[in-house]
Structure formats: structure tokens, C-alpha cells
Amino acid sequence: MKIHHPIQYGELQKTITINPKKQSSDSSITDKDNEKSNASCSSSSSSKQKSIMESMTYDKSSKRWVSLTNSVLGCLAKDMLPFYTCEKDGFKKMLKTFDSRYNLPGRKYFSAAIPKLYQSTHDQVQEEISEALFFAGTTDLWSSRTMEPYMSYTVHYVDKDWNLQSRHLQTVFFPDDHTGENLAHGLKDTLDSWGLKEENQVCLTTDNGSNIVKATQLNNWQRLQCFGHRLHLAVNSGLKDDRIDRAIRITKKVVSSFSYSYKKKRELEKKQIEAELPKHSLITACDTRWGSTQKMIERFLEQERAVQQVLSADRKSVSLIPNWQTIEILECVNSAISPLAEFTDALSGEKHVSVSMVMPVIALLNDDILSPKPEDVALTTEIKTRILKYMNEKYKDESSRALLNIATFLDPRFKNKFLTDEEKFDTMTKLKLEILEPLEPIVATEGENLEDSPAKKLCLGNLFKRRDRIQETNKDLTPGEIINSEIERYLALPNIDYNSEPLQWWKEHLIIFPKLSSVVKKFLCIPATSCASERLFSVSGQIVSCKRTCLKPDKVDQLVFLSKNLRLD
Known about the structure:
Elements: H1 6-16, H2 31-55, H3 63-78, H4 89-98, H5 107-130, E1 135-143, E2 149-158, E3 164-173, H6 180-193, E4 201-206, H7 210-219, E5 223-225, H8 227-238, H9 242-259, H10 262-274, H11 290-302, H12 304-312, H13 324-337, H14 341-347, H15 358-369, H16 378-394, H17 398-409, H18 421-436, H19 441-446, H20 460-473, H21 479-492, H22 502-508, H23 514-523, H24 531-543, H25 553-565
Parallel strand pairs: 1-4, 4-5
Antiparallel strand pairs: 1-2, 2-3
Helix pairs in contact: 1-2, 5-25, 6-7, 8-16, 9-11, 9-13, 10-12, 11-13, 13-16, 17-18, 18-21, 24-25
């Protein structure tokens, strides 16, 4: 400062140095006056120091500036904020309040920094998935607000710590015709670009589009139908009835009349208070989501009294009041499909095992949820029967059913509880063939993270002792007999609680079942639904908003990838 800023340096020295020799000759000056004078000097000193410090901004090569800029970049990428956010007055004022010495770069800087951030995150994700010997995938197609077609792909695997991981790999621009041949080629290109081998992909979970079905057949890939999509089609099949269609149309008209009228909303709130009903708004249904139709019917039945009172008070809306037959039909529909709502949520998660729950859920639908009850009216029974028939027919495919049976068998919550005698024999036979294949992870996983495994039922020392006894017993047995022995001991153990995590159970019993555990990661990583790809479309829709329609496809892919995979820790 002394060399390059002599004026500011001189002012700074004046504020720091206070002359103690200056005395007042007037004896009438009191101590109070001295205190005021000192306070005035101190205030002036602080304001000058603050002004000088604010004029000294961070150099763009300093660690502090780089750290703050990277934080802003991570915020924009992770939270899907437009680049012009950094040029808004409120955003700049906020950062200036946090640190007055920081100068925020403009939108062009952050836009140019995205590819570099994408590449570093890409390398990190690629290193993580390269450690997984087996993986499963989901894929789907989507069109943006500008009608540009994209194809997504997500990968799912069990990591070395026995945690289920999910990574979004691509939302690639797909301008070609969506034929089975083009999709097959595009999916192969995706795996090649990430260095993933086709033979290590256990399964691809998709919807039931004829083009994607053909693509998996051309690639000779194992395909699993999305449970959520199947359930949606099953519910639609169950609701195919002229009486139900009419009742739902009437309900939609009533809900629509409240959605576009503030007066009706206001009156509805008053009637809810008078009738002591919950202060809930009516729900609009979406034709592509059966759950929204169920929620609409459920909410309408809850608010029926208040809705009828509001409509009765308006002579223009009296014709919208549903009659008692319509109400009865809606009650039948809600009674039949409301128990199904929670299954979609339970099987659409990405952080817990879901594929092993498909067959138990099918069994639960047959034995309890959709089985006719004495109190059910005829229409409710018809709806349940049609839904159940559709679900049972669609899960008769031998290839998919064999895959689901193995996954269910390897889940310590279920094992062979939901398999028929014939399925038990076939499942164990196919499981033995899987284990007998020369797989690399058998040796690698035997001692995997043993020091970090929390032994909840047996301490680590006892596990080693048990393994030694098992190895001594198996010393003279053939590989097939060793597998049979492991399966028998596995089935002899009690099933764990339904709310427990199966992967953590396998982590704790890795030493005892080295052969069985070698294929657990292969089958329990499969997602039961393609919701992972569906969620990418929601993210993409927020990124390609009405104010960002000029984003190039490559930038869209990078931003979606960063939003799902970027780690801010």
C-alpha cells in the first residue's frame, strides 16, 4: 500500500496513530468530554478502515475468490438456477453482504465454467461405477418444451460398502426416429461412452413401449417391465366402465369449476368451517397418473358436503351437483384402488432394494388387497377382479418371472416364502448355475470391509469362527455340494423383519455365505420401476424452462447431469 497507494496508506496511518500528547489547556474540560472525543475518533477510524478494506477486492487468483466463485457455480448447477441469477441485484447484494471484498463474475463466466465442472464430475462418477462388476439400468424418452427429443439412462449398482447407488449418466439429444433399431444403437453407444460392458448389465427396466421392447430384443438384453407402468395400465383396465367414466367426468367438471373461480374457493372455505371439515383444496386429476385420479376422488368424497352446499347456492352451478348414484360409484372406485397407492411409492425408490418386492406384492394383491371381501359391493368386486387379472397375466413371462424369483429368494425378508414348490426348485437350480460361473467377485468380496461391518447379531470374532468351522466341513465337498450347504443354512435362518435392509444383512453375513453373497449384488441392484428416468424428465423440465428455451442440447445434458450427480460437500 505504501508504494502503490500512498494516499490511502497515509490516511490509514492517521487513523491507527492517535497522538497521546495532545492535552487541553482548559481545565474545564471534563472526563465526559474526553470520552465523547475518543468515541468520535474511534467511529471515524472504523468507518475509514471499513471504506479502505472495501476498496481492496479479492484478486481473482486468490484462494478466497476461487472458493466463493466455485460455491456460486455449484449453487447454480445443483439447484437448476439460470445463469442470469448472478446478475440480479438481490443476488449480488446478498453476496456483497456476506463478503464485501468479493466481486461476482457475470453470467458468461459461469456458463463457460459448466463444461469443466461437468468433466470433473463425469470423471468422478465414472470412477465410482467402474468399481461395480454388475449394474442395472433404466431408460426412457422425453420431449422438451421446445419439442427436442431426449433419451435418458440411469445406472444402479451395489457399492463396496453394500449400499445401493443410483447415478444418472445421460440425457442425450436423440433426433433420429424412435425406432427399435435406432434405440438399440443409441443404448449401446451410451454404454460404450461410459466404458460399461453389456455383459455386466444384469437388466434394463423400461416401460412397455413397443420400440424399447424391440430395442432390448435386438441387443439381446434382459428386460424388466416397470411395475409402476404396469400398475397404471392395470388400474385403467379395471376402471373401464361407462358408469365409472361418467362419474369421473362429472367429478373433473366440479373440480374444474372450483379451480377457476375464486368466489367458489372462498365459499368452500366458509362451508368447511361450518361443517367442521379439514381445510383442504380439491385436487385436479392427471390422465397419465392413475394416483392423481384416486386422490381427486378421495378428496372430493371428503369435501362432498361443503362442495354441494357451495354449488347449491349458485343457480348456474346447480347442474354440476352429482347425484347419489355418482357418489356411490366414486365410493366403489375409491374403495377398490386406494390401497394400491402406497405400492407405487414403495417400489419407486432408488436408495432401497425394490426388485425383490415385486413377487411378494403380487402375492399380497391376490391374497388380500384385491381379493373379494364380504362387504364389497358388486362394482368394487368387478374393479378388483379386472385389475388382478391384468397383473397376473402380465407377470406370466418366464424370463421376467425367473429373474424376480431369484431376487426374492436372495432377499432375507422373503426367501422362498412367496414361491410355489416348482418355482423353488427352478430358482435354486438357476441360482446354482449363476454361482458356479467363474466370477471374479467371489474372492474379492469375502474379506470386503470386514472391519467396518457392524455385527448386530453376531460379533466379528464369532463370524470368523463360524466361517472356519464351515470351511472345515466343506473341505471334502464338491462346489455344487458347498452351494447346497449354503442354501440350506440360509433357509434355516429366520426371515428378518420386513422393514429391515437386506443389503446390510448380507454385509453382516458375508463371511458365512461367501458363495450366495457373490450373486446378491448382481440381482438386488435392479430397480423395480423406471421412475429414476422419469425423475430426470422433471429435472429437465425445470432446466429447459420457458425462459431458457435456447439452451443447446449438450448444455442441457450437462446441467441435468450436474443437478443429479454434483456433490457439494
